[in-house]
Design brief:
Blueprint: E1 2-3, E2 6-7, H1 11-29, H2 32-47, H3 65-73, H4 88-92, H5 96-112, H6 117-120, E3 122-128, E4 140-146, H7 148-167, H8 184-198, H9 204-208, H10 218-226, H11 231-235
Antiparallel strand pairs: 1-2, 3-4
The structure holds zinc ion.
Length: 238
């Protein structure tokens, strides 16, 4: 493996080279002052809750054993565990007493807004990108293996937040990303409909941006067969 012009051979040096590369990349997207301000703001807001008046009920209330059991039964198996070595299989097979303890830990984190250190630790595994020079650290895509217990807590919280956001209409209807039951097809469908209804015709400018036929995806062929006149117009947007 190469670090600049230098050849590195030991595992320790290689790991160090990856650490430096990832630290460099993550520094580019971090805004320390904003992070600090947001944390301070969150801490102040946490002192008293406007939603429930600190009664810790409704959306702020603890998770029930039923909530936990539902998430446990939906866990995907055969996934590599995080640094704590706890697999989803272990969580799935917990007995009633252990489930209660787990629920207490998750609810404690939810109530105090403290995330255990073990849930924030990750084992980073660099995976080589196809066709790239394997001697360079930049040719690897890192994946982070994190605690399945932490992920379980996150899933419980996400389900509650999603319900709140959807039921209170906080997410605009145009947003399809990160939403269940919606996909990019919805956006394409809307665009096709708009083009049909408004009768937007081809323009030389659009034609110059015409791209190669779209990827082999059934959604695309279904969409384009429904609207053969407009698919290339859409292709210029993607
Ligand atoms: Zn509250």
């Amino acid at each position: 493996m190469l670090k600049g012009d230098r050849l590195i051979v030991t595992d320790r040096d290689k790991a160090e080279a990856f650490v430096q590369e990832y630290a460099r990349v993550s520094k580019q997207v971090r805004i320390p002052k904003l992070d600090r301000d947001t944390k301070r703001q969150l801490r102040e807001e946490h002192r008293s809750c406007r939603g429930c008046g600190d009664r810790r009920e409704g959306a702020c209330g603890p998770f029930s054993l039923q909530d936990l059991v539902r998430e446990l039964s939906g866990l995907q198996l055969k996934k590599t565990p995080g640094p704590d070595g706890i697999s989803n299989e272990m969580l799935r097979h917990l007995g009633p007493v252990a489930r209660k303890v787990l629920l207490t830990i998750i609810n404690m984190s939810w109530r105090t807004a403290e995330v255990p250190r073990q849930w924030r630790q990750a084992t980073v595994v660099p995976i080589p990108k196809a066709g790239k020079d394997k001697r360079l650290t930049a040719s690897y895509r890192p994946i982070a293996l994190t605690s399945h217990v932490g992920k379980l807590a996150e899933r419980l919280i996400k389900r509650r937040l999603t319900f709140l956001a959807e039921s209170r209409g906080l997410v605009p209807p145009e947003q399809v990303g990160f939403r269940a039951g919606r996909s990019v097809e919805d956006s394409i469908g809307r665009l096709v409909q708009q083009v049909k209804t408004d009768g937007i015709g081809p323009s030389p400018d659009v034609q110059t941006h015409q791209k190669a036929p779209p990827p082999r995806s059934t959604s695309w062929s279904r969409m384009t067969s429904r609207a053969p006149m407009t698919w290339w117009t859409i292709a210029s947007y993607v």
